[in-house]
Amino acid sequence: xxxIKYIGRTTDFKGKTLWEIVGNLKNFGVGRVVVRSxxxxxxxxxxxxxxxxxxxxxxxxxxxxxxVEKTFRGRTYPKLVEINSVSYKADYRLLHKHExxxxxxxxxxxxxxxxxxxxxxxxxxxxxxxxxxxxxxxIAIKLKPGHNNIYRLANEGEKPTVDVxxxxxxxxxxRLYANCEL
Length: 182
Hints:
With about 180 residues, this protein is an alpha+beta fold. The strands form three sheets. Strands 1, 2, 3, 4, 5 and 6 form a six-stranded antiparallel sheet that branches. It has three helices and ten strands, in the order αββββββαββαββ. It comes from Aedes albopictus. InterPro entries: Ribosomal_mS34.
């Protein structure tokens, strides 16, 4: 009995390349909705509505430049996005016209509020306590602003909705930490 041995890298991609999809559509799929399978792991819808399609000069790479209205995790980008460097990946699928409306339905996103300051990690806390004499030193959180960010810093007097704490969490082997003070 023979066994099959696969050689090379494996991939998590499921689907077709953008070249294959738009090449088989009328008007190169302008107005149609394409979904990247990698983004279907999120609960919010992520999809791209094709606005314009251009071919690239090197036909061997089978890349195509597609201008899309991109929606990622329920938020639509304010500007059009060009996809060309990842168009060769076999990770796209075309939505049927009858499922476009239900798939692209807007889902309200809940904004999560995080505290302005958090405790220091245990070892750093010990050093800072010795240096400054403060009982419970804290560090300010710097939050990078972004279009897809669902977190924001709490305003003065506002109660955070997300608890951020320092600690060991849920250890794999609790008996290793049985005699430790945390």
